[in-house]
Amino acid sequence: MFIELSDVDLVYGSGKSKKTLADDTLAVRSASLSIADGEFVAIVGPSGCGKSTLLKVIAGLARPSRGIVRVGGEDVVHPLKTVGMAFQNATLLPWRNVRDNVLLPLEIVEPHRSRQKQDRQKNFERANELLAKVGLSGFADKMPWQLSGGMQQRAQLCRALIHEPSILMLDEPFAALDAFTREELWGVLQELWSFRKCTIILVTHELREAAFLADTVHIMSARPGRVVRSRTVDIPRPRTLAATFEPGFVELVHDLRHHIHSEAVS
Amino acid sequence: MSNETLERLAPWCAAAVFIALWWVIVVVFDIKSFVLPTPSETVAALFAYRYALLINGLATLGTTLLGFALAVVFGFTLGIVVGSSRLIYSALYPLLVGFNSVPKAALVPVFVIWFGAGTVPAVITAFMLSFFPIVANIATAFATIEPELLEVMRSLGASRRDMTVKIGIPRSLPFFFASLKIAVTLAFVGSVIAEIVAGNAGIGNIMLIASSSFNIPLVFAALVVVSVMGIGMYAIFDFAERRMTSWSMRGMGMMQQAGGG
């Protein structure tokens, strides 16, 4: 497996306090999860169940109090450098235009960083190409505030992908968008993923979103969170919005909802 | 008249109204000129003492800008340090607030004992008054960087220096310029106070000599010189702010567009 979590605990806060490990100080408890290389997984669960924390653990941004985290066969002890991230807030830098925002990772990640000067033109085109793929050609020179929320999210996806990370982490990236824009962006994301076969971990509240996009949907329990159930989605790709109205899909979403409800109650 | 011209004329109108009001009050209540001179007496003094005011005005300007420049360098650096680490923030911030609450005017005699009368105490007082707003603003800008943005940077393997250069400093520029505009006016207050208490040159010194000989029109003329210098420096930083941080002022830009159309 490409990404493996086994029996991971994470204490909320510093993780160094000597308090007893009562359940309410734990964000995640004995969580186990494995993700294959190039797989698209979604993590769903009741709110506050530690979904985002799990992302941070995999990315090496938070150290688990107990348990093992492995990515590509190696223990995660430092922040991984092969990760792209996108959040609910687009967090674009307001002083840079869209293209320069997308190019930010190339100014930091090696080997691009030391080749910035000679690759300038190439990177420029690379950013334009990526922006075109998400439907933002012609907006490269605009400032972020000139873009709508949906467009900002498209730009954020480009920023997360420009350095060709092996893992893309999406923390409710479409949660603040209206339903039409959101469904449109599902299609954009699916297409991006078909070009760049990276591993995608999507944290979401939206069960239809999880079912539409993911190969596997992992359901987490209420806090302290752990993965209680995993469901593979075998709808053939590329999936269309029409497929979301088929009985199989509807049934799948109902099933996911049922599990989450029973988790939230218990 | 378009809104734009009106906006441009507004500050001059306000100043004219202020001067007229001043004049009317002096005339109506028949106030003696050694209590409150009329604007015309002030202008006359401004003209009569123009060389003394020019030379001493430049001295004050030099002192102020030296203290202010030290405050910018020191304040910017300390602001980054304080804003970048929560530990340092909680350690130093109370100290800074306490330090800032000390009445600086009361410290001038102490500076005179340490450094002698003259320029040095004035530079130090200007520095002391103006560095705090800069530290506070830069520290706030750094401490309020969105955590998601820091996560994006960390997941790319960015060093602390990368975060400061790529995110922290550009993001803090609007805060920085806002603080410069406050700080430079405070720097004038600081240097003039020190010159009054222990100067042998400068606008403050002129004010001290003039008031001890009841030449109140000259005191007011000196005040006008300080105000004009303060407004001038403010305008320079305001211009620089518009040029360098236009991205943060889109609301203003839209306001102007709406006004023009």
Oligomeric state: heterodimer
CATH class of chain A: Alpha Beta
What fraction of the residues of chain B are assigned to beta strands by DSSP?
under 5%
Question: What is the ordering of alpha helices and beta strands of chain B?
Answer: HHHHHHHHHHH
Radius of gyration of chain A, rounded?
Answer: 19 Å
CATH fold-type name of chain A: Rossmann fold
Q: Would you identify the CATH H-level superfamily of chain A?
A: P-loop containing nucleotide triphosphate hydrolases
Helical/strand content category of chain A: alpha/beta
Work out the number of β strands of chain B: 0
**What is the straight-line distance between the termini of chain B?**
13 Å
Q: What percentage of residues of chain B falls in helices of 4 or more residues?
A: over 70%
Rg measurement of chain B, Å? 22 Å
Low-confidence stretches of chain B: 252-261
Q: What percent of residues of chain A are in strands?
A: 15-25%
Q: Supply the CATH architecture of chain B.
A: Orthogonal Bundle
